[in-house]
């Protein structure tokens, strides 16, 4: 006999596990299904983010940044290091430990919130009598019945045609996190978040990194001033970045990969590397979901079609995160997961897509929220801009990390904050003040008049807000 649930969540990534927990908090009987396995075959909920995305990449970024600080910057602090070595195997093992801690933490949260967890692949079987039958394929096959279904199956790395991932020479984000030795030469196709972060990790450890990007503009989604500064700093660090390329044949041999491409000038080029990371975006994951069994509608990209409330074309079937429209960000998925659980409970869950922050965890970090200056110009909206460099910030000087700046964009008439863009130390943390301010429709003057601790990096935020009115105090 099938087990009965009020809510069944398919997928245990940020959108899925958060949706399951929130639904349980609201009093529903909830099942969560996830198929990720750890190295021992046990459950590893958390999705791409926890297992091969956000969490492990940040662990490697932290380790590689420590190494670079020790090799290049410790001497400035009077710290002498002799015989510095990098144990890549230990770095990878630490990353794996961090991942497992997060996996185990999610399993604990399921237990704490009385969410019934099923380890396996969930798929639709049929719809009948206002319910949906869901199969769980795994070591212990199950059949579940649920009134509400939340699909949170995430996304997969997009492969280049004719260059399938083997995770040994041609790597997705998964394989890029499992490299056992520092490659002498590393190629990266795609100058987006994953490409820049993974390229930075292995460059710091000694690899010669070349990034090939098809688009003519570097970091086109970011503010132009931020993108220009980032390109300058990354190039100075040693990343070789080529824009406007057209990728041709990719050939693998016993010891490496050769990429034929045409550069922005139309000249034929060839790049020979030990390993190649392909990071050209991600595609919605509906593999094995058996959407056709119930008539769940997909769009031309393979994403599940949803409305503004994450409702699908089927009654009581919802979808959140990377498998639907919108930015493929873990925190966006979480917010949608919470909102859907609350909508099922008759509440008014809400996600503001205009104030979702974006972060790139390079060094310096890059973070932004709201409109870019080029977007405001394209709209014809009158605005004021103000910037403040970390070079003039006391805490940044003490840290020895003075690259970058904070930039505010505000409405020319009302002074409402329209966008905040940061490149510099701890940008990922500093952006939260801007997100809060924009959600409360704050003006630049509001931030300028709030007392910020001294010395702190957040003072750069205050000073940038002051700069909107051309009255900075420390620059």
TrEMBL record:
Q: Name one GO molecular function term.
A: dihydrolipoyl dehydrogenase (NADH) activity
Cofactor needs: FAD
Q: Where is the Pyridine nucleotide-disulphide oxidoreductase dimerisation domain?
A: 356-465
Quote the cofactor binding remark. Binds 1 FAD per subunit.
Q: Report the record's Gene Ontology biological process terms.
A: 2-oxoglutarate metabolic process
Catalytic-site annotation from UniProt: 454
Range of residues in the leader sequence: none
Tell me which domain of life the UniProt entry assigns to the organism this sequence originates from.
Answer: Bacteria
Q: Which GO terms describe its cellular component?
A: cytoplasm
Query: So what family is this one in?
Result: Belongs to the class-I pyridine nucleotide-disulfide oxidoreductase family.
Q: What is this protein called?
A: Dihydrolipoyl dehydrogenase
State the species of origin: Aquabacterium olei
Name of the gene: lpdA
